[in-house]
Amino acid sequence: MQKWSQGDSTSRFRRGRPVFLKPSDGDTFDNRNGPLILEDRLTEERTNVVNNPFLALSIQQQRARLPIFKYRNHIIYLLEKYRILIIIGETGCGKSTQVPQVMYLMEAGWASDGRKIGVTQPRRIAAVTLASRVAEEKSCKLGEDVGYFMTDGILLREFMSDPLLTQYSILMVDEAHERSINTDIILGLLRKVIMVRQDLRIIVSSATLDATLFRDFFELNDTSDKSKDITSIISVEGHIHPVTIYYTRNPVPDYIQKTVETILDIHKNEQPGDILVFLTGQDEACEVESVNKQLFEAAKDLRKKEVDKLWIVPMYGSLPGFEQLKAFDSTPYGTRKIVVATNIAETSLTIPGITYVIDCGFVKLRVMNPENYFESLMKLPISQASAQQRTGRAGRIRPGKCYRLYPQEEYDKLLPNTIPEMQRLNLAAVILLLKALGIHNVLRFNYLSRPPSFAMVEGLQSLYYLGALSKDGLLTNPLGIQMTDFPLPPQHSKTLLCSGELGCSEEIATIIAMLQIQDVFVIPSRYRHEAELMKRNFSVEEGDHFTLLNVFTNFMQNGKSKQWCINHFLNYRGLCRAQAIRDQLLGLLRHHNIPIKSCKENGELNSVLRCLVKGFFSQAAYYHYSGDYVTIRNEHHFKIYKGSAIMVIFTEVLQDSIRDVSVIEPEWLYQLVPEYYEFGTDAEIARRKVEAKNQASTAATFFTGCLFSAQAVCIACSEKASEIQCRQVSQNRFKNCQVLKVWWLCQQSLFVDGPGLDYFISKASNERLSKVIPRVEEMDESLIKFITYGCQMNINDVELVRSLLLSSGYVETDDVKEADIILLMTCSIREGAENKVWDELKVLRKIRRKKGVVGVLGCMAERVRHNLLTCTENVDVVAGPDSYRDLPRLLAIARCGSMAINVQLSLEETYADVVPVRKDKSIMRGCDNMCTYCIVPYTRGRERSRPMNSILDEIRRLSDEGVKQVTLLGQNVNSYRDLSEISFLSASFVEPGVAPGFRTKYKPKRGGYTFLTLLDKVSQIDSEMRIRFTSPHPKDFPLEVIQLIKERPNICKQIHLPAQSGSNIVLDAMDRGYSRESYLELVDRIKTVLPNVSLTSDFIAGFCGETEECHRESLDLIKHVVYSFCYVFPYSQREKTKAYRHLRDDVPKEVKDRRHQELASAFRETALKHNEALVGTKQLVLLEETSKRSSEHLRGRIDGGVSVIIHKYYNDGSGLVELKPGDYVVVKITSANSQTLQALTLQTIKLKDFENL
């Protein structure tokens, strides 16, 4: 029975038991599980060196001595209770080898159903050696019960075919503190997987990591109930003795020289014990050999004195294995061993006898330079975590000492942890991988540490110029999709895929395979000169890439002989691996039907160089008079890396030098990648830019409508086309017309085919992927919660959205915590309205903790979309007022983990065909008035009206359903004008214009159906249905509209008449289009026609330039008109408005607040006066709902809109009658305050009969 297995998914059965094969053992080709995927070239050729001080003990005794052994039951318990376990295990505690066995030996059942336990390692060599150790402890053959550990790259390839990792029950991500790019991507993907797979267990282990960071990243529990946590942490101590740390008093100018001095000082004055010296990484031979040379000279002088001998042992990655093993040999009597190493000795290796450690404080890491965007090895200060790792090497056997060659204050300045690769490397390969996994919006991926913006931009641009991404950011077909199958950096993949058409695929496959090897040439310390001479025998004048090709060809011709490699100072294991990689690459090329050819057939060796240009065109350089090589683009200077020939194309950058270079012809760049470089003199380049701009402008002018027209004529040459559609037009059709040809080429580039989300979903099992990347049609049953801010138009918009989403299968809920989706309908009219939304987003963030989708809709979504995109409140969807139809798609994208946005304003969208759930009807959207303070024209767009017939049909339907009241809504409702149908006016007809004394800034509109016509027809549908409308502008109240309101009993005698200010100075600054006097004249006309009218208004306190006198005029206007209600707000400037651009907000906030309170107090006085005048009168009330304060009372409104509270029951003379919402009742007003009326019910009645009382 299969109990535990690991690594490669390929298996065979021997003697009825599963046997796991090495990737090279099988004769079948699997392009998903190769060893290439972006592994670090710095580490992959390190020889496996293992030291076991307890070799005399049995394996079981050795295991029992490990610190983690006593925690095995704790680990089993935590895995049963939690889904994610973070293990902080100090070096040497046994976590990497014992945790998988704990799960197996205790028969926890995690693999009893045939699924696997996966363990990943950042480095390939660690994955192999640890698996070997586990197999040894299990007393089985590696590949049978115990499979191979995986590198992070192999697990990433498994995500491509099995996104939910269904074959695994437990995944252990070991050495997570190294934070490689692959590790961070895996962690982000696993966070998505655990939201779908409840049965998966994840273990994250390391010696030094920020456990809290990892816990918070994985924790999905957004409540205060700790019993619902899914993440736990366990710490395991290691075997380490006390280490005394010494610092220098002052910074060290030359750490190489200081290292030698410190070694000699320790040797002369300290007790016996070996010394481990840490120097930097790449080009370590130079530094290590420099130290060795100085120490050899010092050792000669020491021989004359009575001190122990010095035995100097170098240790770095490119050394042959037998030389690395010398560091683990026992030190002879009377000798002190000095191990001069790079960071290869920082982790995973325990060198016996080490008592003293010398830490130079530096390390070489791969970093993308933000100035030139080249990824190179740079010498950087280490982190505090690395310093602790180095210090720990001195205390593995007995108490030791660590000498840090920097002051303590410099240590305090070091970063706590090494910067993750995600934040310091080129992201092109990461973006390509995420796109292949269906994660289209890479900005919203769950990064443990978010990458810098410049790296993301450079990655996207790099992929675009390589042809992997279209202008829309989609993978191109076929190139982009093919590149995702190659476990290589994108530049390497592009070079390989172009090799077939240039007839050199065999040579390019060899070169790309050789580039994956860290050091092809071996430089032994005692045979350095001979090794350099032998290297020259392989060099060719064309450059380093042909040198690599020459080495591999000779290796194959000599039967892959190990002895031949030793004689010629070549890396035998590296060449063997290059052969395996080459075979895999050729298999991938055949898989994609790329012809396998050799340039030897035609003798065109230049085709190899031309192919390299196709992939590495961005890394071209020319020789500069200063002696440097300067990149053609951006002109960055580089030195020649030692051993390289003259060149102009390079594939490797080492801080300020370049290597792996070859000579190319300059015209190849123009021929192969003309879109990337500009060629010619400065004058020629400038002239071409002007010509291209003029041609593009002409083409754009002539052919703006070509995609939609049946016939077009080129004005430049009068040549006609019967059909102009970019997907069908050929270049030859207009071969004589250069303008049209330029236009066609420009248009053609816009239609680069790229797969959509459905393509990636279809690439894998729908059953697996639909849970991670749901389709739009598969979003049924998602619970949605609406939160509304702002005016009645926003309330109506919520009803539109509700109707759209409920019809798509969504289910509404009132529980914020239960909802899968929360949508906030927002208002931007004032700062206070937006602040409420920001506060709500913060509350939601605390409550939900990144669970589900949060969307911001409406005006605020359009106005501050950039802030919403970059805010920390986890907004996933941003949809403007005209993009609600797109919400199902936007929500589906957000459910996949990406941000979705659509804030495009429309000149036509009115949602005429969407039936809202509520009874209020939006008849128009947008505003053309452009008042200086108002943001509405910028967030809601231009005025456009619904077709009148659609409005009338909806109101007839509501009437049939028994609805008793409808409110017509619009930003400027009485500016309604339906132009969807042509209407012919008679000569005697005079169209209503604006109210006398009012003006507009735009040309008066003519024709169509006006608000007067609509109001007339709506009021005739049902005489028992009340008609209200809001919000109007005073200018659109001609006498005809007022007269119609008087004539129709079912049109309510309530008019909202926004004044905004009572001062002509302020009204003029607001550009309202009227004066105080014309406004009062309109009020008088209305009151003359409608004596019992109820007027409401809007006022702004503290507008730009408002004085105390202006403010008093506003107070006076409120008292003069006697409004029944007013909306008053302190002024807040809105970006984009004319006031924001041209006026100064010069009224202090405290003054605004005071004036606001005074306006509110004034309107409450007039409202009370208005309402008290109604006491004792009979009023017709339409009951609307149960009172919020008492279930025994009902709330309704009189014709003028004032709320009335009456008792639920009344006596009609024959007994008690229960009233209900929808009833019309005659009441007598008994009391009043500024907000509501109290009344006594007299009788029920019909609306049309009330006039006869």
Automatic annotation (TrEMBL):
<feature type="domain" description="Radical SAM core">
    <location>
        <begin position="913"/>
        <end position="1169"/>
    </location>
</feature>
<dbReference type="GO" id="GO:0060255">
    <property type="term" value="P:regulation of macromolecule metabolic process"/>
</dbReference>
<protein>
    <recommendedName>
        <fullName>CDK5RAP1-like protein</fullName>
        <ecNumber>3.6.4.13</ecNumber>
    </recommendedName>
</protein>
<keyword id="KW-0411">Iron-sulfur</keyword>
<dbReference type="GO" id="GO:0046872">
    <property type="term" value="F:metal ion binding"/>
</dbReference>
<dbReference type="InterPro" id="IPR002464">
    <property type="entry name" value="DNA/RNA_helicase_DEAH_CS"/>
</dbReference>
<dbReference type="InterPro" id="IPR038135">
    <property type="entry name" value="Methylthiotransferase_N_sf"/>
</dbReference>
<dbReference type="InterPro" id="IPR027417">
    <property type="entry name" value="P-loop_NTPase"/>
</dbReference>
<feature type="compositionally biased region" description="Polar residues">
    <location>
        <begin position="1"/>
        <end position="10"/>
    </location>
</feature>
<comment type="similarity">
    <text>Belongs to the methylthiotransferase family. MiaB subfamily.</text>
</comment>
<dbReference type="GO" id="GO:0005739">
    <property type="term" value="C:mitochondrion"/>
</dbReference>
<dbReference type="InterPro" id="IPR014001">
    <property type="entry name" value="Helicase_ATP-bd"/>
</dbReference>
<keyword id="KW-0949">S-adenosyl-L-methionine</keyword>
<keyword id="KW-0067">ATP-binding</keyword>
<keyword id="KW-0378">Hydrolase</keyword>
<dbReference type="InterPro" id="IPR002792">
    <property type="entry name" value="TRAM_dom"/>
</dbReference>
<keyword id="KW-0479">Metal-binding</keyword>
<keyword id="KW-0547">Nucleotide-binding</keyword>
<dbReference type="InterPro" id="IPR006463">
    <property type="entry name" value="MiaB_methiolase"/>
</dbReference>
<keyword id="KW-0408">Iron</keyword>
<comment type="function">
    <text>Potential regulator of CDK5 activity.</text>
</comment>
<dbReference type="Pfam" id="PF04055">
    <property type="entry name" value="Radical_SAM"/>
</dbReference>
<dbReference type="GO" id="GO:0005524">
    <property type="term" value="F:ATP binding"/>
</dbReference>
<dbReference type="GO" id="GO:0003724">
    <property type="term" value="F:RNA helicase activity"/>
</dbReference>
<dbReference type="GO" id="GO:0051539">
    <property type="term" value="F:4 iron, 4 sulfur cluster binding"/>
</dbReference>
<dbReference type="InterPro" id="IPR007502">
    <property type="entry name" value="Helicase-assoc_dom"/>
</dbReference>
<dbReference type="GO" id="GO:0035597">
    <property type="term" value="F:tRNA-2-methylthio-N(6)-dimethylallyladenosine(37) synthase activity"/>
</dbReference>
<dbReference type="Pfam" id="PF00271">
    <property type="entry name" value="Helicase_C"/>
</dbReference>
<dbReference type="GO" id="GO:0016787">
    <property type="term" value="F:hydrolase activity"/>
</dbReference>
<dbReference type="InterPro" id="IPR005839">
    <property type="entry name" value="Methylthiotransferase"/>
</dbReference>
<dbReference type="InterPro" id="IPR001650">
    <property type="entry name" value="Helicase_C-like"/>
</dbReference>
<dbReference type="InterPro" id="IPR058240">
    <property type="entry name" value="rSAM_sf"/>
</dbReference>
<dbReference type="InterPro" id="IPR023404">
    <property type="entry name" value="rSAM_horseshoe"/>
</dbReference>
<dbReference type="InterPro" id="IPR006638">
    <property type="entry name" value="Elp3/MiaA/NifB-like_rSAM"/>
</dbReference>
<dbReference type="InterPro" id="IPR013848">
    <property type="entry name" value="Methylthiotransferase_N"/>
</dbReference>
<comment type="similarity">
    <text>Belongs to the DEAD box helicase family. DEAH subfamily.</text>
</comment>
<dbReference type="Pfam" id="PF00919">
    <property type="entry name" value="UPF0004"/>
</dbReference>
<keyword id="KW-0347">Helicase</keyword>
<feature type="domain" description="TRAM">
    <location>
        <begin position="1172"/>
        <end position="1243"/>
    </location>
</feature>
<dbReference type="InterPro" id="IPR048333">
    <property type="entry name" value="HA2_WH"/>
</dbReference>
<dbReference type="InterPro" id="IPR007197">
    <property type="entry name" value="rSAM"/>
</dbReference>
<dbReference type="Pfam" id="PF21010">
    <property type="entry name" value="HA2_C"/>
</dbReference>
